[in-house]
């Protein structure tokens, strides 16, 4: 009996739920079919999601919501298709015959053109008011505007016609910038997205962008990459990939310009990589600062075998230690040094720098680079990896690895977003310094910085020097593999340069790569190092980084406010100039004189003059301003 009651109860609940679902379906059907809108703008009556802005670290707007209009048609109300198409084609710069075909093929609602310009909207509005366009309406829609146009375009990204992020931060933070309406949002109400603050400083971004653009025009490369980072936090202050894109015309930009090269493009780093291989060898104990190798212009292995290994150096450097290897960018010295440790030891040490792994910055399409496991190395892999070949990296991976030199051997996670705030100003999330791991010892980090500073004064990086600031620099020139021949190209190179400054305690990291330069030179020390110097000079002045020889003015951070001087009448008239009206109040209590005050502010003149003998009943006149 009890089982039967339970069955009946469940049956009733099932029937009730089924009835509710059926009623909801019927209600929605009636709402759509029986109460169909006669105005197309009513068909789009819905909750509006106001997409939040993207700003730089200082609150400068980089992307913001704008209100635009779209042209719609309610086909049953159009009386003359040809006339309507003719007016629309002229006002909106559209093909008339195609409009006729599109309108004739539809029976109810359709979009004519989405998110038109204000000028186009004014033309359509005038025709609607004149009664020339029955069935045609203007409906408001939200669009995206990018006030800085191409500045940081690959980082910011783009939101498409439906206000959905399609690239960059607009894509990865789409759910933050434009949260989905809930069941409780209601119709005809706005749902406000959050504000995303990037780590970039627009001023530093300008410095880097214009320097990169000048290099692009002068050397005619395919790409110029430029990254500026805050050394102690990992915050990215500038993120440049030239050619940049005017984000207001993103859809029409060539596909090759849309590639986010600082994270998506992997390439052999060349001699810049020597700072990481030398740091690894020092940390492993394979070499020390005094270990000497001899460079006679090339490196040789297995000279008695049928296939000897021979690697050419850029010069005959003679006896070299670790400092000299970095200063002169000695391939032979780096190759010899690599033989002091095992393949496995060098592989695991370089993996500590996370080469071969994504940086996990919030951008899509990031490459892992290429760093083969040591069991797959050939006999020449270790020497060539030590000099920056047989390994591929992204620009962001280089910057991430370089943070270890600025933080006593601790590598930091790069940050691109500093904080997220709600539309009403509440902080939802704030980025913090994120240590990844202790990669090398503090002693190794400081030693490598000292060696790099020599490259900036006497070596290949001397063109990166900046007045009054010690620069730690390493340049690189790498060949690009020719996919047709499977060999290194004789014409295609990548010129690069890495710098940290001040070298004694780095505050800033800068890295640039000029891919396939066609004019002037292809050497990193010739074309990439001056680019570093140009931007570093401006960054140092902008951030107020101290230079040697500058006059430094210190301030305790507080001031002492003197108490107002109290005026008393003695035997003579005092000097009242500069006194406030409040300071004159005690004089009013002295019965010997009559005080006549004219004006407001402070005393600018008086009568009689200071030092006049006071006589009972005399008048003192003061003029305030």
Task: Explain the overall architecture.
This protein has 625 residues and is α+β, with helices and mostly antiparallel strands. The protein contains 18 helices and 25 strands.
List keywords for this structure.
31% helix, flat, 625 residues, alpha+beta, seven-stranded mixed β-sheet, 18 helices, single chain
Helices and strands, with pairings:
Blueprint: H1 2-33, H2 40-43, E1 48-50, E2 54-55, E3 61-74, H3 81-92, H4 96-105, E4 109-116, H5 118-129, E5 136-145, H6 153-156, E6 158-159, E7 165-167, H7 168-172, H8 174-177, E8 190-192, E9 195-198, H9 202-219, E10 223-230, E11 236-242, H10 261-264, H11 274-284, E12 293-295, E13 298-301, E14 309-312, E15 318-320, H12 322-328, H13 331-338, H14 343-352, H15 381-386, H16 395-406, E16 410-412, E17 417-421, E18 427-430, E19 435-438, H17 442-457, E20 472-482, E21 487-501, E22 508-515, H18 524-543, E23 593-598, E24 603-607, E25 618-624
Parallel strand pairs: 1-8, 2-9, 23-25
Antiparallel strand pairs: 2-3, 3-4, 3-5, 6-7, 9-17, 10-11, 10-22, 12-15, 13-14, 16-19, 17-18, 20-21, 21-22, 24-25
Helix pairs in contact: 3-4, 3-5, 9-18, 11-14, 11-17, 12-17
**Anisotropy-based shape:** flat
Cα-to-Cα separation, first versus last residue? 103 Å
Mean pLDDT: 87
Sheet with the most strands? 7 strands, mixed
User: In percent, how helical is the residue content?
Assistant: 25-40%
Q: Which structural class should the secondary elements be placed in?
A: alpha+beta
In total, how many beta strands?
Answer: 25
Cα-atom radius of gyration: 36 Å
Outline the low-pLDDT stretches: 32-45
């Amino acid at each position: 009996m009890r089982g039967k009651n339970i069955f009946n109860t469940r049956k009733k609940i099932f029937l009730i739920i089924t009835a509710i679902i059926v009623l909801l379906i019927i209600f929605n059907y009636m709402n759509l079919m029986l109460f169909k809108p006669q105005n197309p703008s009513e068909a789009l009556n819905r909750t509006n999601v106001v997409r939040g802005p993207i700003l730089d670290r200082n609150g400068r707007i980089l992307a913001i919501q704008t209100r635009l209009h779209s042209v719609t048609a309610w086909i049953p109300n159009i009386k003359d298709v040809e006339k309507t198409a003719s007016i629309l084609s002229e006002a909106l710069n559209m093909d008339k015959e195609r409009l006729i075909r599109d309108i004739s093929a539809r029976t109810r609602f359709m979009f004519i053109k989405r998110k038109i310009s204000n000028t186009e909207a004014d033309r359509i509005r005038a025709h609607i008011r004149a009664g020339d366009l029955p069935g045609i309406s203007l409906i408001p829609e939200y669009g995206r505007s990018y006030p800085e146009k191409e500045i940081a375009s690959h980082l910011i990204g783009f939101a498409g016609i439906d206000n959905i992020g399609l690239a960059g931060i607009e894509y990865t933070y789409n759910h933050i910038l434009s949260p989905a309406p809930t069941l409780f949002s209601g119709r005809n109400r706005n749902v406000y997205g959050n504000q995303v603050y990037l780590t970039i400083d627009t001023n530093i971004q300008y410095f880097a962008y214009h320097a990169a653009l000048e290099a692009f025009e002068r050397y005619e490369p395919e790409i110029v990459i430029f990254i500026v980072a805050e050394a102690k936090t990992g915050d990215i202050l500038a993120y440049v990939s030239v050619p940049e894109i005017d984000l207001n015309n993103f859809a029409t930009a060539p596909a090759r310009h849309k590639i986010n090269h600082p994270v998506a493009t992997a390439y052999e780093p060349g001699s810049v990589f020597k700072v990481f291989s030398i740091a690894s060898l020092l940390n492993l104990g394979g070499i020390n600062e005094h270990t000497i190798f001899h460079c006679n212009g090339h490196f040789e292995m297995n000279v008695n075998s049928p296939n000897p290994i021979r690697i050419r150096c850029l010069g005959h450097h003679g006896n070299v230690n670790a400092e000299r290897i970095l200063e002169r960018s000695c391939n032979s010295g780096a190759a010899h040094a690599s033989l002091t440790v095992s393949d496995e030891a060098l592989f695991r040490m370089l993996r500590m720098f996370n080469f071969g792994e994504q940086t996990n910055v919030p951008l899509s399409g990031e490459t892992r680079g290429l760093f083969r496991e040591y069991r797959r190395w050939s006999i020449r892999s270790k020497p060539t990896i030590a000099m920056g070949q047989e390994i591929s990296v992204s620009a962001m991976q280089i910057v991430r690895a370089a943070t270890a030199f600025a933080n006593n051997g601790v590598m930091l996670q790069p940050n691109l977003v500093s904080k997220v705030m709600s539309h009403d100003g509440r902080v939802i999330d704030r980025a913090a310094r994120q240590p990844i791991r202790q990669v090398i010892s503090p002693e190794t980090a400081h030693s490598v910085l000292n060696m790099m500073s020599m490259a900036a004064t006497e070596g290949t990086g001397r063109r990166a020097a900046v007045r009054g600031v010690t620069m730690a620099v390493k340049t690189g020139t790498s060949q690009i593999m020719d996919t047709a021949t499977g060999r290194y190209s004789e014409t295609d190179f990548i010129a690069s340069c890495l710098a940290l400054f001040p070298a004694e305690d780095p505050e800033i990291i800068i890295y640039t790569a000029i891919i396939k330069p066609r004019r002037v030179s292809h050497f990193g020390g010739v074309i990439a190092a001056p680019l570093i110097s140009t931007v570093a000079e401006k960054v140092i002045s902008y951030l107020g980084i101290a230079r040697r020889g500058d006059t430094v003015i210190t301030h305790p951070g507080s001031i002492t406010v003197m108490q107002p001087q109290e005026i008393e009448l003695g035997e003579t008239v005092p000097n009242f100039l500069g006194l406030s009206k409040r300071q004159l109040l005690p004089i009013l209590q002295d019965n010997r004189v009559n005080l006549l005050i004219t004006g407001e502010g402070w005393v600018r003149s008086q009568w009689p003059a200071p030092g006049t003998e006071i006589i009972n009943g005399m008048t003192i006149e003061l003029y305030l301003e």
